[in-house]
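Hi D.,

Good news: the full-assembly prediction came through. Inputs first.
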Amino acid sequence: MMCAMTLVRQYARSVLSAKTLLVYSFLLGFLLYMVTPFLIIFFNSFGKGWYGMRWLPQEWTLNWYQWAIEVADIPEIMKNTLVIAGIAVVISTLIALPTGWALGRRHIPGKELLTALILLPRMIPAITFALGVAKIFYGLHLVDTFLGVALAHVALAAPYAILVLSATFESLDERVLEASAVCGASPAQGFFYVILPLILPGILSSIIFTFTTSYNEFTMTLMTYGPHTVTLPVRTYLAVGEGYWEVSSAMAVILIIPSLFILFLIQRQLQPEKLVGGFKGV
Amino acid sequence: MNSFWHKQREGLITLVLLSPGLAGFFGLFFYPMLLTVILSFRPEGREVGWTLAHYARFLGDPAFRDVLGLTFSLAVGATVFSVLLSLPLALVLREKPKGNRLFRLSILLPMMMPHLISALGLLLFWSKRGWANLFLLTVLPFLKEPVAVNYTIPGLILFYVWLFYPYTCLTTLASLEALDRSIEEAAEVAGANRLRVLWHIVLPLIRPGVLAGSVLTFMMAFGAFSVPLVTGGNYRPLSVQIFTQATLYLEWSAASAMAVVMAMAQVTFLTIYMRVLRRPIA
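Then the structure:
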């Protein structure tokens, strides 16, 4: 009897561990599936004479980074990318502050429809209206200018900023402000000590979103860029087309670092599940 | 009378607050889209006259119908396999295994990384001399030749799944975690085994979430641009065809007609998505 019990228990344990093993090998496979493309870019950017068919490059080199910086002129391109992203962030925030306030705090008939309309540019493929944007910008001589490329990015960045800020303003509780007034705060004090701290996280996350959108934006840039406004994504695309995979990999690593940093920030600050389907609340 | 003027004034303030957002929407999205629609009815290269020739050509020419067929098959394939990957993954992650946070973070990778870089990494990883083939050749002794993945349709679907399954996975995970465990426990107490609980209780309950996520994945796959541009080779889905038609063949009117068809299709999917999402949980 005792023997049978032990056997049963052992069997149960082995089934359990087999299941755990299965689960973990599934998860490990999944993790590898997700991460390897980036790992291989990383190794490729440092590898010399690594034409594959080996797990790792035999020799290591920094040549590709040197190429990226000297031949492909990455510092200049990085400057373009950051300037354009900066302009896009400023314009989007200036658009989103009043519009987000109106959508979040004021009575508007047909608010749902309006929000859906404002988000529409994010929901349909950018190439469909990028053609029209390019056509208009050619007429206005905005193509190949920082402002022009940034404005094209605003078409995609502003809807997100409006969404984030209207949600932030909507969650403001007026009673908090009233309480501060009761306690003797002037309107200016109320704004700086009560409202601002409450809406600052929202504004910051809106800025992060618009910045990443512009920094990574490819389709709109491809339709409006010129020799003076090449951005990092476009340069990487061109390098892939030219067949310099190692240099492309080095550029990709340079391009990726801010995204990784932001991913880290977001994971800390926000719940990622809430990001999906940004218009879920519509 | 006073309250009438008050109302007018309030409405005016709301309008002023909304105006930057509306200006952005009309200037950077609505007007370009309108221009695209008008252009799609113009004879190629001219600003006068009306014609339906581009639509007739687009929908009549077998080569262009192939483009539509390819776009749909890629999107459908990506959606089906995304669901097949997301369901087990979400079920496993729901149990909060060790390293839960890491796995969840890796789901976000494709959403946070620039698609262009993901495309480069996927091409490197799945190339004939890349890690994937190296691994397959090592573990499968009967495999003599490396498997061709890049620039094939199954390969494109594989890349699409990698890029767009997070939308399905995150909504599935969210609906799983919103489930009340006591329902499953009740079913188990009533004598149902794990599989029956899964099939008859869990799956029907999370169906709306999975559906909503699949429509999102489908929409993303339908509109994908940078990835098929880099990894498609000779296969050009609609978005890439629009770009090629406009910038390579300089046929803006033909490209516009395609863009209009694409935008309308996407708005239809969007409507379906909203319906799916609004439907009360069955």
